[in-house]
Task: inverse folding
């Protein structure tokens, strides 16, 4: 499965980066290096290195939890093209989630970013479109909430924290990765939009 392959490759490169900071330094997202030294590969490679073990574990656990279901849906619906579309979803999430940060920080030599959070957010929101009523549970909340409610809360929180900008987390990447994942999947299979709304209306008691 593509999901497992991505997790394996990302884990190997990230762990290598933990013990060799030169690897991490060559791969991390650095807008000024992209702008001034034409190192455009960093738009993609930063998703294969992580800040620490917890950062890596959380991203890969979430990817494993949602990625397999999305991949299976894509393959069931699109056949062999499903794997190609899944790769476009993942790598498109990396690229699009990084673009706003590049525009904002391309002259900032101190701005760096690592991690697959943008791509993982794309996969999660693809899953939300496919199955909006599936249950999601947080560690600190002892009950399940529907996926679409989680999605709304996630976008609001990410937008707020990106605007506030007082921590070391790429909330803007989370936001734009999520938007990309939802829209990309909707464009691939527009009928999902109708099914999505019907399920939400039914949940709210309007159907």
Result:
């Amino acid at each position: 499965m593509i999901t497992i392959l991505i997790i394996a490759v990302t884990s190997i490169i990230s762990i290598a980066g933990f013990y060799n900071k030169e690897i991490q330094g060559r791969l991390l997202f650095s807008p000024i290096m992209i702008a001034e030294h034409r190192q455009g590969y960093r738009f993609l490679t930063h998703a294969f290195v992580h800040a620490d073990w917890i950062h890596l574990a959380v991203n890969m656990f979430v990817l494993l939890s949602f990625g397999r279901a999305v991949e299976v849906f894509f393959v069931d619906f699109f056949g062999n093209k499903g794997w190609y579309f899944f790769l476009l979803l993942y790598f498109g999430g990396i690229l699009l989630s990084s673009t706003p940060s590049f525009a904002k920080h391309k002259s900032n030599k101190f701005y760096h970013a690592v991690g697959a959070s943008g791509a993982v957010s794309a996969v999660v929101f693809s899953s939300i479109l496919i199955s909006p009523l599936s249950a999601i549970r947080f560690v600190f909340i002892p009950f399940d909430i529907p996926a679409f409610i989680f999605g709304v809360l996630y976008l609001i929180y990410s937008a707020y924290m990106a605007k506030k900008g007082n921590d070391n987390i790429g909330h803007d990447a989370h936001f734009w990765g999520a938007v990309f994942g939802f829209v990309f999947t909707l464009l691939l299979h527009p009928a999902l939009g109708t099914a999505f709304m019907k399920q939400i209306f039914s949940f709210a008691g309007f159907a």
Summary: The chain has one domain: 2-203. The longest strand covers residues 135-136.
